[in-house]
Amino acid sequence: MNVIIFTTWTMQNFLPAVHAEIITAHIKKGHQVKVVVCDSQLQSCFIPHFLQTDKNKPPFKEQQTCTTCQFKWRSILQNELGVSKENIISLKAFPKNILVPFFTTKNEIEQHKFQNINVGQGIISSLISIYCDVDIDVQKERKAVEALYQNAISAVLTMENLKDFEPDKVYIYNGRLAERRAVVEFCELYNIDYDTWEVAQSLQHYFLVNKTLPHAPKEFAKEALQLFYEDKTVSQDYKIEFAQNWYQTKRYGNYEDNPSDINYTKLMGETNIEALNINKYKKNIAIFVSSEDEIASLGSKIWAFEYRQTESIAKIIEYFDKKKNNEFHFYLRIHPNLRELENKETNKLKNLKGNCLTVIPADSPFSSYSLLDACDKIVCFGSTLGIEATFWQKISILFGTSFYSYLKDSTHIAQNINHLFELIEDQNLLPKNKEMALVYGYGLLHRGKRIKELDIYEQPPEKLYNKNKLLYSVYKLYKKSARIAKVVRFLKLEKITKKTLIYLSKK
């Protein structure tokens, strides 16, 4: 079996850890494994974007981070995993004879193909994630577009060079961003089997999906149901108790932030919501929105939606404002993660108006859970609060896509805008049974396999550098005194030595 592991940047510890598990598993089976790495061929990289405080800057390379990433990953591949030099494949650099098209609209990019491979979807997904904005001005962000385009083309040309290897399987982390989506599309075009993978919310597990992206709701539902009903290694009582505790923890905020689950409850400490003047004689509906950019970045194939959230809410308000003696009132809770985000979509949300609408800003201290309790029904477009409402036995309506979309009877699902109106008006609607909420809560944190060696990347410098006598000498020199360290930094000895070792590791 011939296997390609597409790795590129690896600075987060779970990335090399999971790549290492996949590589080791195939080598042990006697398979031929080639690992694609970035030796600074990528023109942009998400790592400095994650690390920098100004998230509006394009994710161009930060040289020191870039050199360290290359050196550490190559050292792990060769010294820890036993991957031979000839099986470590550098990304093909973007050719100078190819011009980046001058795109004028977002749609032009989305539809763009290179050698019959759609590279545009991944570029747009990357841009949306970088700028947290659905309405990207592609001419204004020309430099970022160029960098991401070059990344995607490098990935396609690398895979083209590996066609003679005749891969039976390709592994890609996430599969959504520019160069990774390009590999996914390459595999689709040439009918090559591929798996994409992602870390579960616990950051202790990872899961693989075949011939789709990790964000596919159908795949989540399939695995969550299997875990909850078919996995006999854990008692059903434990699963139920775990899921119940998860909902309690989410509601009362008894956890620390992590990259996959930010604790917003601490920003919403005001449980007394009397200031909202909720009229108990009305039919009160809470609307909880998600980040529009998070939905749009996944693409309509994976995360289908009829309208943007602002369009849907505007239609709801227009419909009910026209009613004589309207008995409905809507409370729009803008998600706290939008409190510092300023773009067209967030401005539209803030400026929504109607006789039957109260807008609760993103920076409001009012508790979303107190609002949930006070209202008769809730409407979501993908927010986790949709399934949380079912757990707390509130009538929950989903208009859009979410990871719980395919958990049958987890929420009431509106098929179109008119059906949404009907569900809001239906006086006989009841909360769904909370069983599917338990399936969701347990599945979200137990999906996939536990990562075995999560610290493979977090080696102390002494251990890593000791395997390279030249670098270890520089490291010891650096540690001798603060004055010598200044000289080492000034002369960039560590960086130069790393680059030399990277070069030698290819020969």
Comma- or semicolon-separated keywords:
alpha/beta; Rossmann fold; seven-stranded mixed sheet; six-stranded parallel sheet; 20 helices
The termini sit apart by 26 Å
CATH fold node name of the largest domain: Rossmann fold
What would the principal axes of the Cα set say about the shape? globular
CATH superfamily of the largest domain: Glycogen Phosphorylase B
Strand content: 5-15%
Count the helices. How many? 20
Report the uncertain regions: none
| CATH architecture label of the largest domain | 3-Layer(aba) Sandwich
Give me the count of strands. 15
What does this structure look like?
This protein has 507 residues and is α/β, with parallel strands linked by helices. Helices cover 43% and strands 12% of the residues. It contains 20 helices and 15 strands. The chain has helices spanning 14-28, 46-51, 63-80, 106-111, 120-131, 142-161, 178-189, 217-229, 236-252, 292-296, 309-321, 344-350, 368-374, 385-391, 417-425, 435-446, 461-465, 469-480, 482-491, 493-506, and strands at residues 2-6, 32-37, 88-90, 113-114, 117-118, 169-173, 194-199, 205-210, 283-288, 328-333, 357-360, 377-380, 395-398, 412-413, 449-450. The strands form three sheets. A seven-stranded mixed β-sheet has the order 3-2-1-6-7-8-15, with helices on both faces. The protein has a six-stranded parallel β-sheet with strand order 11-10-9-12-13-14, with helices on both faces. Helix 3 (63-80) packs across helix 20 (493-506), helix 6 (142-161) runs parallel beside helix 7 (178-189) and helix 8 crosses helix 16 (435-446). The model has no long low-confidence stretch (mean pLDDT 84).
